[in-house]
Specification:
Blueprint: H1 3-29, E1 35-42, E2 46-47, E3 50-51, E4 58-66, E5 71-79, E6 89-100, E7 105-117, E8 128-137, E9 142-153, E10 158-170, E11 176-188, E12 195-209, E13 212-222, H2 224-232, E14 239-248
Antiparallel strand pairs: 1-4, 1-14, 2-3, 4-5, 5-6, 6-7, 7-8, 8-9, 9-10, 10-11, 11-12, 12-13, 13-14
Length: 249
């Protein structure tokens, strides 16, 4: 990302986040409800190491309803850029079950429906479902594992498996936290023998500002297939991303 573009995106992120944070602070003072709202602005929407906005900024919002017994459902959306004629918006619908197994362990099982809107008529339907299991251990360091499976990735008949690990460490009263993650994506299309396997990784530092959180992260993809993919597209290349998010309980 060019320096001028990065500075402009960072400035926009901070300017948008200020009124959002003020609104969220007022919401926190009210009684908690089963509904929660997430708002974010980012210099690049990176999903599992790959830019979904062609290295451009994104504005994102989500709404989640959580039942007392652990069931939850919600919707999340973002602008995207998959190239000429491609969709301009991603809207995800999800439902799942979240359960504390003990004081330290948490299990989350869910399914997400990824949908892509406002593509040209000739682009084709690329909506698909992913089944996701996550296990988290909370201690001095929070460690999480995720396993995702899609039996019709991108509505193409291909199978996708994603496995990832993440860790975060809270630096106490400073409000800062450090994070790192790595993941593996495998996509196999039985109908034509095509296959893609690559890894993604990130390191990040976050700072809380009341209800808002600013995160600066470095993201990358690697592996032999990632090198091949980079030759044809910039969306697999490494870069820094700044995200300002607000969660309103």
């Amino acid at each position: 990302m060019k320096p001028v573009k990065l500075f402009t995106a960072i400035s926009a992120a901070l300017l948008v986040a200020l009124p959002i944070a003020a609104f969220a602070q007022e919401a926190e003072e009210e009684a908690s409800s089963p509904l929660s709202v997430s708002l974010a602005v980012t210099t690049d929407y990176v999903f599992r190491g790959v830019s979904q906005t062609d290295n451009e900024p994104a504005f994102q919002a989500g709404l989640t309803y959580t039942a007392p017994f652990g069931l939850y459902a919600g919707v999340w959306g973002s602008n995207i850029d998959f190239g000429q004629g491609g969709p301009n918006f991603e809207v995800d619908y999800f439902v799942g079950w979240n359960k504390d197994l003990s004081d330290s362990w948490n299990l989350d099982l869910g399914v997400t429906r990824y949908t892509y809107e406002s593509a040209s008529s000739g682009y084709g339907d690329i909506d698909y479902n992913e089944y996701i299991a996550q296990l988290t251990w909370s201690g001095p360091v929070t460690v999480g594992g995720i396993l995702g499976y899609a039996d019709d990735y991108g509505n193409s008949g291909a199978e996708q498996i994603y496995a990832g690990l993440s860790a975060s460490y809270d630096l106490g009263d400073s409000g800062f936290s450090l994070g790192a993650s790595t993941g593996y994506t495998s996509i196999e299309a039985d109908n034509n023998g095509g296959r893609a396997d690559y890894f993604d990784g990130s390191i990040s530092v976050s700072k809380g500002f009341g209800p808002a959180t600013a995160t600066l992260g470095y993201y990358d993809t690697f592996g032999s297939d990632a090198e091949d993919l980079r030759r044809g597209s910039d969306i697999y290349k490494p870069g820094f991303v700044l995200t300002v998010s607000v969660d309103i309980p």
